[in-house]
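Cross-posting from the modeling subforum.

Setting up a comparison between two proteins and wanted a second pair of eyes on the formatting. Protein 1 (sequence, then structure tokens):
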Amino acid sequence: MIVYSHPDCLLKFNGQGHPERKERLDSILKSIKSSDLKVKFKEAPKVDLEIVSLVHPKKHIKQIFANIPKEGIIGVEKEPYADTMLCPNSENAILRSCGSGIAACDDLIKNNERVFCAVRPPGHHAETVRANGFCFINNVAVAARYLQKKYDIGKVAIIDFDVHHGNGTQEIFYKDKSVAYGSSHEFPLFPGTGAENETGVGNIYNATLKAGIKSKEFINIFEKKVLTPLEKFKPEVILISAGFDAHKRDPLANINLESSDFFTITKKIIEIANIHSKGRVISFLEGGYDLQALSESIIEHLKGLKTHI
């Protein structure tokens, strides 16, 4: 199993007190390195804009980069709601976060290696032409399109257990029967999308969660409303948007998962992958803002990813 990351991903700074901070990635990498998990670390390359343009127009990405300040930070949204920030080190972090997924696709197809992309900024809120929710390029969406174009993969499933709905991923694939998107998320909560009647062309499966629910109820809903329809879809590859902010310790949401639940959730995904997808899975870090919860949950997630290889 491979873990992709890069020091550039630690350099992106969103301002004092911002929840999406470098310490998140620091804690994850330290946790993995101090564990007894046998993984190979690789440095994430920068993605080529030609590949990014499979999802996002080049003009849009170039405009984001043109707005990067020489010093300080600026928000891409209008004040006073700006929380998707650009700093002088943003470009390389953004390109390597997406590039990790492209390298992961190559490892997956050529060498049958499962991969976890330990990168920031995250991606699942990034829409075709709108950066938001701490996200600029939709890493998982670009990987899906790359798999289809480069390796002639027909059907890709994206499973998103971040506590916030992946409005970007849904928007990008809303009318595309070749990509199924299943998301479990607290509702209502930022970004406000992800109602269960948002079904695309029968390829979108939203599982809304009420604030305060605990492990057993979460897993029951996740199985029924996300995994069961995705199993019927029979994907050739599964991509995971792995957010750990449904943890009971997370400050930005109100779902009460335990760290060990992320092993259970991941193992259930792997079971589907082993039946329909030749075991082919890539996971991308999304949210998760409590450092202790992240450190614990990421180990559980990787243990789940390593099952039945």
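Protein 2 (same layout):
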Amino acid sequence: MTVAAESAAGVVQSVDWLAIAPPTIAAVVGLLVLVADLFVGDKKKVLLGWISVAGLAVAALSLLPILNDDRSTFCLTDGANACSYTADRFTLVIQLLVLGGALLAGLLSMSALKDANGTAGQLPEGEFWFLLLSSAAGAALLPASRDLATLVVALEVASLPAFALVGLRHGDKRSSEAALKFFLSSVTATAVTLMGVSFVYAATGTLHLTEIAEELRHVDGQLDTLAQTGVALTLVGFAFKVAAVPFHFWVPDTYVGAPLPVAAYLSVVGKAVGFTGLILVTVVAFPSYADVWGPALAVLAALTMTAGNVAALRQQATRAYSAVRLLAWSSVGQAGYLLVPIAAAGYADNPAEAEKAIGSTVAYALMYAVVNLGGFAVVALVGRTQRLNRVGDYRGLYATSPLAALVLGFFLLCLAGLPPGIIGLFAKVTVFSAAVGAGLGWLAVVMAANVVIALFYYLQWTALLFRAPEGEPVKHRVPAPLTAAIALAAVLGIALSGAPQLVLRFSDTGLF
């Protein structure tokens, strides 16, 4: 073999197709749907939805062969132990959350793409499914990313289709305005993140997260300020993505203006993308700066949960208030809870304790994903007959749709952390324990106060479901895909309440 051939062989990397199967399947199915849309008639467009949902299910099932086997690919060939894609326990759990959330959002979308009479709605089906699958592929790639370049690319692949999804409703000014606000805020976040990444690369000379962690411990004194600025800018960029205060302003208008399944998707998958990226850059890449990002995230957590819950409580005083806007402010408050264990990881004495803190965030995110998507599913049901979808429209829902009312009440109690929503209660206790264990007593007190504040608007909405209806009750016709989404979320929520250890064990064993 010639020297040139040996050199070429040294840079050729084998691809572990089994490891990269989940995002790859979602991306391939998205392309197939886009092409199939050109040949499928209007009356058979529903097939595109079923193909997309089936593709997401297959992508989620592709996690099973690698469930107990950490795998890495796209690794450096110079002997360094650094890879760009790693399918470890953390990756698989987040990919399950992302693909499962996208699947439930897909079931919601199949009903939203048709109007109440079953005819074509305002959303172009082929483009919708392509964008949803593309975004899901990027979201599934992100938790496996182990270098900053792949991380940013995955973040943008997840975000760019989401802009179009928000503004996809033709002729709707609110949808266009929501897409513009979402786009501008996300572009700002991306610009800040890219500047931070470039500074970190200039200071360390590498993009791989594990190598950055090592290099930041020995940064040359002349580059220390550059490294600190890069770390700060990167964290600010991800704070935009997770809708932390004061970067949360885009959330309420975006959720209200977007098609309801897209709002549900953003509230779970979009949030998971932001928090996953934040976990990777803080715990994996920047542990040597924990004394900076730990206190900063603790303050952000307190401000975010307080702003979200107070805004929801203030607006819920009027029954004319939009149910979707209430869920939007609730998601801001929930983002504050999710930030608490990440902040606690900054105060950990060793990597094992930091991993357990991160496990608390993941456990809470899994609970939140199930019950929040279930809540959006019932909101989608009511929205089929109540165009404005106000909180007041849910009065007497039990009289017309008893199962829907019971399920929505269960989801709201899970979010509030009250029985029978046991999983919500245990998840909050786990997050609370992470704060106390890290010595963040003041943050635990703030969280406890916010849980009490949130009880008011969650319980008010729950009580409204069982009051006597005003006027003639409205019957709600439930399409099969929407029924499946509500039933699946309810079954998962009940199962997790009956066996909370299924997700809470992550807070004891860690994930990395």
